[in-house]
Each structure stands twice: as C-alpha cells, then as structure tokens.
Write a structure and sequence with these properties.
This protein is mainly α and 462 residues long. The protein has one domain. The chain has 18 helices and two strands. A two-stranded antiparallel ribbon has the order 1-2. The longest helix has 37 residues. Keywords: Antiport, Cell membrane, Ion transport, Membrane, Transmembrane, Transmembrane helix, Transport. One of its GO terms (biological process) is monoatomic ion transport.
Length: 462
Amino acid sequence: MEKSKGLLEGSILRSLTTLAWPIIMANILQTAYQLIDTFWLGRLGANAVAAVSISFPILFLVLSLGAGLTLAGTVIVSQFKGAENQKMIDFTASQTVILVLLVSILLAITGYFSARPLMTLIGAGPEIIEDSVSYFQVSSWGFVFLFMYFVFQSLMRGIGNVMLPMYIVLGTVFLNLILDPLFIFGFGSFQGYGVAGAAVASVITQGLSAFVGLGILFRGKRGIRIKLKEMLLQWEWVKRLFSLGIPSSLEQSSRAAAMTVMVMLVTSFGSSVVAAYGIGARILSLVIVPALGFAIATTTLVGQNIGAAKIKRAEKIGDLSTKIAFFGLTAIGILLFIFAEPLTRFFVPNDPQVIKDGSKFIKIMAPSFGLLGVQQVLNGVFNGARFTQASMLISVFNMWIVRFPLGFILSYKTTLGFEGIWWAFPISNLVAAIIAFVYYKTGHWKKRTMKNRHLWLREGFG
C-alpha cells in the first residue's frame, strides 16, 4: 500500500523515474536479444543479417496482434490498484493470462505454417529466403513463451512492481549471450544451426522467463495472485479486454505492417540496402526504448491516479513526461548522429557499402528522435486514461498516411532513390508529434476519462 500511495502523492518526477528506469533497463535488455543476434549473425555476413532483418517486421506484426491485450491488463490493473481493489486486480490478471495464452497458441501455429509465403510476399531474394524462413519458423514457437512473459511483465508494471521483470530479463540476456554463438556456430562436435540458431537460443531463454513469471503470479507473493478457478473466461471481461486491447493491437500491428511494407520498398534496392536498413532499424529500436520506458511508466501512473480520481495530477504527469522524452531523446539523437558510422561498422565490419548506407540512415533519423519520444509518451497518457483508440489513430496516421506514401514517393519518384525511404522517418515523426500534442492540449481525453470512470464503477467493475 505504501508503494501505491507513493505513486499517488508527492513528487511526480520521483514517481516517474522510480517506475521508468527499471522499465527502460528491461526494454534495453530485451532489445539486446536483437542486437546480440545481429552482432553474431554479422560474422556470418551481410546475407545473414538481411535474412533476419527481412523477417523481423513480420515477427513484430504477429506479436503485435496479441501484445495489445497485455497492455489492457496493465491499464485495468493500474486503475484497480489506484482504487485499492485487490480482488479485481487478481481477477483481471487471471482473465488476461488465459486470454493471452489462447491467442498466443493460435498465432504460433499460424506463424509457423505461413512462414514461406510471408517471406516470399515481402520480397526475400533467393540468397536469403531459406534462412529467413527457418528463422521465422523457429521464432514462431517462441510466441507462447514470449506472450506469457509479456503478460506477467505488464501486470507487474500495472501495480508498480517494475524491478522484478528487469531482474528476470537481465538473467535471460546473459544466458542468451552464451547460447547465441553456441547455436549459431556450434561447439566441438555440436553442429550449429546458422541463422536459425539465433532463434533457437531466443526461444529457450523466452521459455525460461515465461515459466518463472507464471510461477510468481501463481504464488501470489508479489502483489498479484492468479487462480485457475478464475481463468474460466467470462464474456463481459473478454469484451472489456478486447475493447482496450484491440486498439492497442491495431496500433502496434499497423506500425509493424508499415515496417513490413517499408522493407518491401527496401528489398527492391538489393540485399546491401536491406542490411543497412536492418541495422538502422535496430538502432532505432534501441533509441526508442527510453521513450517507451517513460510511456509505460506514464501509463501506469496515469492509470493509478485516474483510479484514485486524481485527474489534475494525471495531466501533470503527462506534461512532465513529454518534456523529459523530448529533450532526453533529442540529446541521444545528437550523439547517435555523431557516432553513426562506428556504430554501423560494429555490426557489419567488413562491408563498406552497408556501413555507408546504414550510417546515412541513422544520421537522417537521429535529429527527430525527440519528436518520436513526444508521440510515444502522449500515447502512454491516452492508454493510461483507457483511451487506446487515440493512440491507435495517431499511429495509423503516422505510418500509413504519412510515412509509407512519403517513402514510396521519395524513393521511386525523385532522384533520392533508397535514401528517400530514410527521409520518410523524420518527416512522419514530426507530423505525428504535432497531432498528438495538439490533441493532448485540447483536454478532451480528461472529460472522456471521468465519464468512463463513473460508468465503469457504476457497472460494478470498481
């Protein structure tokens, strides 16, 4: 209770940083999976990096279809935490776990059997098609484990317990450091699996984290106890989880689908450009981690304060988070602009063309990272207020109305060539940040939040 009260009172900056830094560290460590894969696969050559780069957006798309449901768990649990309703925290957690489990099994089966047509669809060339298919198929079996850990992590974050997920991820990343080269290259008489070996290592570590997370939830000594008897799905709660989760899923999946079609644009320029795009995209995924950390912390804080009917404090949280994200990520962007070339060379040390193209991509994107942070944090405010539709509409507009059409026009209809795709990123970040900020300042989300909160409580869910 003391911890919950601490998030509802006192210094907002302290509350934000207390929640955000473990989330940021956990997200950095999760991103490290991809960076470790890229590092070791780069030793196999540019084609190995391209094979994973081309399959990653599709993997992200499939994951996004169910990942929104875990956010729904965060939002609902955070509001019940603010309202001090432990019974509904446990019930919501149990319903979320079983629903996400069922969705993840369906997605794992679908992903495995659709691997080849999907890789063919997005334009994998003959030199990388087999590796990209095998990597995707192995990764598909990890969906169940990955989703179970994500739901554990989201529920813990909803009640403000952010340290435990970070410790678990830290342990699995160290394990992945050992398993990656073992399963990629082999050791002694053990034959490695090449590109697919990176996926095998990830699935093993994902499975371990999932079992640890579920064990903690069933024991119930960390603020949430899930129970088998409460996992019989209730239609009212399925509808509620989907009403919050589907917009978030659509937001993330639309982002992933846009990444996929951007890759389709990139593939027409050859494997070297695909590899450069893959490295730039991974640097971007690392840079966005601080913004996502503050966005998730903002979602938890806003949710708990709305649950406690502290709307003015929720708005102050949004104001401060936006400033931190903008100035902090702008500073990071400047550093990445300066060190773009050595960063690219770190991943693919022996390919001058990939180094040149990849560093150019980073330099073009880097100045807009602060704007990207603004959009992400404001999405966190809207999510915490249970207005996930706003986040979805802003992201869809950003990716599909601005970034993809602009990337197509600049790369195919101007002399920029593939660099036109690079320029679509900062321009779309600027447009999305302006739209999110203007809508936030209108205050419509606050009025809608109070209305929905009263309805929710009156219906017996508070």
